[in-house]
Specification:
This protein is α+β, with helices and mostly antiparallel strands and about 180 residues long. The chain has a domain of about 90 residues: Beta-Lactamase (2-Layer Sandwich), CATH 3.30.450. The chain has a 4-stranded antiparallel beta sheet with strand order 2-1-4-3, with helices on both faces. Strand 3 and strand 4 form a beta hairpin. Helix 3 packs across helix 7 and helix 5 packs across helix 6. The longest helix has 17 residues. It is globular, with a radius of gyration of 21 Å.
C-alpha cells in the first residue's frame, strides 16, 4: 500500500499542472452582436484588395519585421477600414492588433500616412488633443499607409510591434512592395 501511495505521489508530481489561460488584458475582438444588430442588413465589405493578396502582403511584412527580431502584427483593411486580414507573428503582443487598427483609423480619417499624422500631432497641440479625444485613435503612431490603385484608396495597411513606428513602416512598405501590381 505504501508503495502504491508513493507511486501515486510521484506520478502527480511528474504530470504538469494544467492551468486555464488568464483572460487577455488587451482583447481585440468586439463583443457578439446584439439581437438588434443581427436584424440589420449585412452589406458586403467595402472595396479592398483580394484576400489572398492581403495575406501575401501581411506575411511579407511580418517576415521582414521578424528578420529584424520584431514580433509584429500586420493588418490590412478595406477602404472603409474593416479588417480583411490580421496576422500576428508568434509571440507578438496582443495589443499590437489594437494599435494596428488605431493606425489604420488615423490614415482613414485624416487622409495621410499615420507617420504624417504623428508629425502633425507633434507640431500642433490642438490636433494632438483631437486625436487623444478619439478613443479609436488616441495616440498618433507611424506604421500605416493607404493602399491605392491609381488615385483611388482601396485599403489600408498597418504594422505594429517593432520598437518604433519608423521600423513598423519599413515592414509595411515591404509588404506593399511584394504585392505591387497584384490588385
Amino acid at each position: 500500500m505504501r508503495k502504491l501511495l508513493l507511486a501515486s505521489v510521484a506520478l502527480m508530481l511528474a504530470v504538469p499542472v494544467v492551468q486555464a489561460q488568464p483572460m487577455n488584458p488587451a482583447p481585440t475582438i468586439a463583443p457578439a452582436p446584439t439581437a438588434d444588430e443581427m436584424k440589420q442588413p449585412r452589406p458586403p465589405r467595402a472595396v479592398g484588395i483580394p484576400t489572398a493578396v492581403a495575406v501575401e502582403a501581411a506575411l511579407e511584412a511580418n517576415r521582414v519585421c521578424l528578420g529584424n527580431t520584431y514580433k509584429t502584427t500586420a493588418m490590412i483593411a478595406d477602404s472603409a477600414g474593416v479588417p480583411i486580414v490580421v496576422i500576428s507573428n508568434d509571440g507578438a503582443a496582443a495589443v499590437t492588433q489594437r494599435i494596428a487598427m488605431s493606425k489604420i483609423l488615423a490614415v482613414l480619417k485624416y487622409k495621410m500616412s499615420s507617420g504624417d499624422v504623428a508629425k502633425k500631432a507633434a507640431a500642433d497641440p490642438a490636433f494632438a488633443a483631437e486625436l487623444k479625444a478619439n478613443p479609436l485613435i488616441d495616440t498618433a503612431r507611424q506604421g500605416a499607409l493607404a493602399i491605392t490603385k491609381g488615385s483611388d484608396v482601396v485599403g489600408f495597411f498597418a504594422v505594429s510591434g517593432a520598437p518604433g513606428g519608423d521600423k513598423d513602416e519599413v515592414c509595411t512598405s515591404a509588404g506593399l512592395t511584394k504585392i505591387t501590381g497584384k490588385y
